[in-house]
Fold this sequence. Notes:
70% of the residues lie in helices and 0% in strands. The protein is mainly alpha-helical. α1 (12-39) runs antiparallel to α2. The two termini are 25 Å apart.
Amino acid sequence: MSVLQKKEDIFSDCKKKFWNTYKTGLMYWPFVQLSNFILIPVHLRTAYTGLCGFVWASFICFSQQSGDGTAKSAFMWLQGEKVNADEESSDK
């Protein structure tokens, strides 16, 4: 996306957000699969996994636009608080 947006440093978003997004995925997907196999009936598992994939893709899109790759930034956004990853990363 950085190439299409004609950014100078095309790897800057990856450098800033990769590990946060990776760690968030490590917390999200095992929970999804555990709940899928324990709680969801067999005939609904595909739909449940598809819904969870949609939620994950929405999180990735949010993270690309304004988040920092953490679930905390997504929850802050859902609560109506302003999230700006550029300011947060420059404060560190």
